Amino acid sequence: MKKRIITLFAFLLLTIATIVFLAQNHSVSAQGQDKVVPHEILVKFKDGVDPSEVGKAHREIGGTVSHTIPGINVQVVSVTKNVGEAVSAYARDRRVEYAEPNAIAELFEVVPTDNYLTNQWALHNTGQVFDTERNLSGSNDADVDAPEAWGVTQGSGTVYIAILDTGINLTHPDLVGKLAPLRMKDFSGSGLEDQYGHGTHVAGIAAASTNNDVGVAGTGFNSSLMIGKVCSNSGSCPYSWVANGIVWAADNGASVISMSLGGSSKSRTLENAVNYAWNKNAVLVAAAGNSNNPSKTYPGAYTNVIAVTATDANDRKASFSSYGSWVDVAAPGVEVFSTFPNHPFVLENPANNRDQNYGYGSGTSMSTPVVAGVVGLVWSTPLAGNNNAKVRAQVEKTANPVSGTGTYWRWGRVNAHTAVTVNVQ
């Protein structure tokens, strides 16, 4: 009788554990549905696996290859099973190196409550009122000293800054002269034109046409723009599109890859793409995120990426910025003035108080292209040594140790002038 009671008790414990396990897994799956591409995963087969075996594995598990990300040989696979089941099935296969969901990154912009060089305090801050309508001002020299840097170098048209984002306004007068027709590619299937507005704003910060009596100045001055549309017209950015964009940019001569986006999920595919581009001598810059906590964001948190958080016009950490020991530098990211599409766009809706052509934007999305522009300037100097590690060191080690350095980020708030003049080792 006692043995029977013990057996029954053990059975009940097993049943309860099973119910809890199933409930937990159901909950995780439900929470993650809006953060991954449904019925699509990323699969990397082990090196040396015969193509016939690869095909056999797909037939056995029920996956169909949509396309392969070149350079890193990761397959984007359509599956009929739910993502979790499909990932598990592939991961158990001895021929597979890894399998993971095709997670979705989001754009890091904080929409302001309201909607030209005096407006751009991020580049040159004298404490001026940069928005007279809202009487916004800052503190003297809480900027990246761009005019001082431009006195040393105005960059080079042979330095390409790849903007991986929502596309670009192809007819904007402050951008059209900076676009390289053979260095633009759409990975979203929705066309290069920016219907969302984010990519156009980011591109202008990095490298709008400068000293042309029109609109705004770009941090990278003469740097050229490459455009990779890796986000949809609603601002959704599947990791596969982002990875494709990183590899494409590296293969097509990008000196800088700017990514004002990120996701909370780690991805070996995304990391492989980052490492591929780094090994191609590109400097990668990515947003730290707008969560106001130390949680890591990817690709920003990867070793071969400069993670950027945001500061305001008084050199304080932006209230929304993610932070932590994994964040490398800070840069202006609050009320940053730049280009917007010259046609209706998603972020223009009345609640956002945005104007066509030009306007303010806030977020680590804005601080990221400031750093990308500074990287572009460094690449045009002898200090670069044609070496991405040296360029990165120039940007990070010459940053100003403003308040928050060592706590919220490692190196400081970037300074374009010291980056192009002080030779670090």
TrEMBL record:
<dbReference type="InterPro" id="IPR023828">
    <property type="entry name" value="Peptidase_S8_Ser-AS"/>
</dbReference>
<dbReference type="InterPro" id="IPR051048">
    <property type="entry name" value="Peptidase_S8/S53_subtilisin"/>
</dbReference>
<keyword id="KW-0378">Hydrolase</keyword>
<keyword id="KW-0720">Serine protease</keyword>
<dbReference type="InterPro" id="IPR036852">
    <property type="entry name" value="Peptidase_S8/S53_dom_sf"/>
</dbReference>
<dbReference type="InterPro" id="IPR015500">
    <property type="entry name" value="Peptidase_S8_subtilisin-rel"/>
</dbReference>
<dbReference type="Pfam" id="PF00082">
    <property type="entry name" value="Peptidase_S8"/>
</dbReference>
<keyword id="KW-0732">Signal</keyword>
<feature type="signal peptide">
    <location>
        <begin position="1"/>
        <end position="32"/>
    </location>
</feature>
<dbReference type="GO" id="GO:0006508">
    <property type="term" value="P:proteolysis"/>
</dbReference>
<feature type="active site" description="Charge relay system">
    <location>
        <position position="365"/>
    </location>
</feature>
<dbReference type="InterPro" id="IPR054399">
    <property type="entry name" value="Fervidolysin-like_N_prodom"/>
</dbReference>
<dbReference type="InterPro" id="IPR000209">
    <property type="entry name" value="Peptidase_S8/S53_dom"/>
</dbReference>
<dbReference type="InterPro" id="IPR023827">
    <property type="entry name" value="Peptidase_S8_Asp-AS"/>
</dbReference>
<feature type="domain" description="Peptidase S8/S53">
    <location>
        <begin position="158"/>
        <end position="401"/>
    </location>
</feature>
<feature type="active site" description="Charge relay system">
    <location>
        <position position="165"/>
    </location>
</feature>
<feature type="active site" description="Charge relay system">
    <location>
        <position position="198"/>
    </location>
</feature>
<dbReference type="InterPro" id="IPR022398">
    <property type="entry name" value="Peptidase_S8_His-AS"/>
</dbReference>
<keyword id="KW-0645">Protease</keyword>
<feature type="domain" description="Fervidolysin-like N-terminal prodomain">
    <location>
        <begin position="25"/>
        <end position="102"/>
    </location>
</feature>
<dbReference type="GO" id="GO:0004252">
    <property type="term" value="F:serine-type endopeptidase activity"/>
</dbReference>
<dbReference type="Pfam" id="PF22148">
    <property type="entry name" value="Fervidolysin_NPro-like"/>
</dbReference>
<protein>
    <submittedName>
        <fullName>Peptidase S8 and S53, subtilisin, kexin, sedolisin</fullName>
    </submittedName>
</protein>
<comment type="similarity">
    <text>Belongs to the peptidase S8 family.</text>
</comment>
